[in-house]
Amino acid sequence: MPLPADTDVSIPKYLRDKYAIVGIGETTYTRGSGKTTRALGTWALRNAAADAGIKTSDIDGMLSYSNNDSTSATFMAGDIGARLNFYMDCIGGGSSTEALIGIAIGVMEAGLCNCVALFRAMNGFSQVRIGGTGARSAVPINGDMLHNRAYGWQSAGQMFSPSFMRYMYEYGTTPEQVAMVKVVHSEHASNNPKAYYKKRYTVDDVLSSRMICKPLHLLDCCVETDNATAIIITRADRARDMRHTPALIRGIVGRCNKPRMDMHYQTGPIERVAAYYAKDILWPNAGVGPEDIDATGAYDAFTFTSMLQLEDYGFCKKGEGGDYVSSGITRLGGRRPNNTSGGHLCEGYTHGMNMVIENVRQLRHDIDDSCPMGPDGKRQHTYDYREGGCRQVKDIEVTANLGWASPGTTSGMVMRRG
Amino acid sequence: MAIQGNYMGMSLTIDDLDKENLTYFRHCADHAFHLQKCDDCSLLRYPPTTGCPWCASPNATWTAVEGKGEVHSYEEVHQAIQPAFKGHTPYIVLVVDLDTQKGQPSTDEALRVVGNLTTPDGVLASPELVRQVGIGTRVRMVFADVTDGLSLPQWTIDTGATQPVKPWRYPLE
Prior knowledge:
The structure holds two protein chains of two kinds. Chain A is an alpha/beta fold. Chain A has a domain at 13-128 and 225-239: Thiolase/Chalcone synthase (Peroxisomal Thiolase, Chain A, domain 1, 3-Layer(aba) Sandwich), CATH 3.40.47. In chain A, 29% of the residues lie in helices and 19% in strands. Chain A has twelve helices and twelve strands. Chain A has helices at 37-52, 73-79, 96-109, 156-171, 175-189, 203-208, 236-239, 275-286, 303-312, 321-325, 343-346, 353-364; strands spanning 19-26, 61-66, 86-91, 115-123, 141-142, 211-214, 216-217, 226-235, 247-257, 295-298, 398-406, 409-417. In chain A, a hairpin with a 2-residue loop joins strand 11 and strand 12. The model of chain A has no long low-confidence stretch (mean pLDDT 95). In chain B, the strands form three sheets. Chain B has a five-stranded antiparallel β-sheet with strand order 8-7-6-9-10, covered by helices on one side. A three-stranded antiparallel β-sheet of chain B has the order 4-3-5, with helices on one face. In chain B, strands 1-2 form a two-stranded antiparallel sheet. In chain B, a hairpin with a 5-residue loop joins strand 3 (34-38) and strand 4. Chain B is mostly beta strands. The model of chain B has no long low-confidence stretch (mean pLDDT 97). Chain B has one domain. Chain B has two helices and ten strands; from the N terminus they run E-E-H-E-E-E-E-E-E-H-E-E. In chain B, 9% of the residues lie in helices and 36% in strands. At the A-B interface, strand 5, helix 4 and strand 6 of A face strand 2, strand 6, strand 7 and strand 8 of B. Strand 5 of chain A pairs parallel with strand 2 of chain B.
């Protein structure tokens, strides 16, 4: 049900910039971690606390998301010596990060706790494969699942592809334009020493890779990796005492949907994604618009997902997504780089959290590339974006993360440099 | 009563509490496609639900619906994820606009019924047949029988209909 036009859904203005991401932590992005999700999660949480310059026992709230492929906060908390005043483990993958940051702000504002750690731990390659192959593929098919799985229509790529195909039909977008998403993100990944795939790819590489589910070639699809990521959120006034420049949270939209989440194809246009609805919450909440954003983290589970979200969040006109992603705008050195880490297509897959981590580092002006270390312990960025070089966006002030669960569900978040 | 059947090597079950799906697939087993029609706003809906997506009424009547329509979108699966389909690639998943209720209650809405492309007797189509179908192809519903009380609706090319000269297909072919 659409909100009446005169409804003010914006975050109260006093909440803008009141909370900040102060700590970020990752494990390596790998295949075959040789560790449980519990060990991966506590590794990332310890890194996040160290990054913030706090003790893990300072964490008193915890949030996580998974699809029953992770370990609950109940185990993580004890392993890092934290006594929690609040925790919640949620079901979900993509689009959870931004939505749960919104929940973290809410529970802190309500006085339930003071310092929330959010984690995602997964063996997305060696245990529960994110592409849907392996054990996940052959589960018994029951009830509502008969309307999709019985037709061999079940993995993420398979469930989304009718939207992608109809988009190309409606707007004449070419496979070459879409492939540029992978090309650009691979350029970024080549400047990211921790990316799983650091190789630069060409349009021909993408289009000559084997077809998985037309219109998706292998290189239109993200990488499956084993890893954990964590972020720590607290009030901005506390953030001033911590190690790094805080990434202030300007505004959020969380798990916003198209009608008919049970099968969004019933409501057209089927190439329209949930960002169409979410933009009217995110931008008023943040008090900024697409033109104010210096870098985006548009979820790239597939090349198409970045493009469609950038379009429906309003970074270009409807139907011009192909031009936008192939114009150079989204490249490092362009007006508004997208997924400077290489994203899910190249860096690793953690259901969106690594894209938030990347933008936090960008806003600190302290991206972890190969630029030389200065006497102050910070990298001396060259802004030379050639292969193996810099990936810091110059003078960046405001970022947007655009999360994706499906064409029918999105979350978004705007952050600014504190 | 619960239903369990085997289709192409997949185990398909419907629990005894799941009245909506039991009724939907029982009509399919009779080779008579039915959808729930809202008793209050008269709109049909797909797939089965416990309430009307437009007016929230829980009251509906199963109503016969003609299984004819046009391909709204499609995908062609070359790497099967579902093990049962591994020997059948490339296969196609169709999202079909039914003629009934197309453009209602708003312009971009339609009853979009999912299925594979099959032969007229409900057997998964060959790769040669798959290549002939695209956006705009006219199709008619057929049924793949699984067990008593359970058949799956599928789509086959409607040879009796006027077909587009060239249905729209993915560009690089």
